[in-house]
Amino acid sequence: MRTLGYLALALSAQGAASSQGALGGNFVQIIARSSPVSKLVLLALVIFSVVSWAIILHKLWLFHRTARQSAVFLDVFRKSSKFSEVQAVCKTLAGSPLVGIFQAGYAELNNQLRQPPAGPSVTAQTLSPGSASKPTLKSLPALDRALLRAAAVEINRLETRITFLATTASISPFIGLFGTVWGIITAFESIGQTSSTNLAIVAPGIAEALIATAAGLFAAIPAVYFYNFLAHRVKLFASVMDDFSLEFLNIAERNFT
Known about the structure:
Elements: H1 2-24, H2 27-33, H3 36-79, H4 83-88, H5 97-112, H6 140-158, H7 162-194, H8 199-256
Helix pairs in contact: 1-8, 2-8, 3-7, 3-8, 5-6, 5-8, 6-8, 7-8
């Protein structure tokens, strides 16, 4: 009799395991049977996840291009003897934030250069270190402010849409938690209506809850990681822009003051 009891218990456990495997292996049916609220929660999480990945992939490509063009621009800037030579390559390297900073400084420099006492007017385009005619700047701090404004514009451009990743990382777990709570409520309602704790009665609500939790984490975890990664890249670009601004100011002070 004891052997028969063990056999019946084993068969019962095997049947429960097989039903759980069938339930866990068919997410489409679980979602199709879920309540409208659970479907709305999953739809919101899918939208957050898709948009986040679109931003992540776009920013990774954009930052790779930015780093490559910035390296080329710095090489041209340091090898050129005239600002006009640097200005000539700006259109081909427009993806670099250093181009925007240089053009802002270049424009401010041209606006400030004074006409020499004799001879034709002189601009930054015609000057190079060691030129015979050297006009002077009216205000070096004004040039510094122009560079700072341009750097702020470029940083804001690099940070565009990155904050959405922080929003996704903050909101998605709570949306998933709401779906989890709703699924548990559904499971308890099923128990109350049937007065039974059978796995077939409780499982749909529990499955909805677990899927909502997993979807929330699936949307939040990549958003957290890549937000930190991209924000760090922006800080590195900001450091490069600061160094370039100082280098530009040094050249201007050395040659035009």
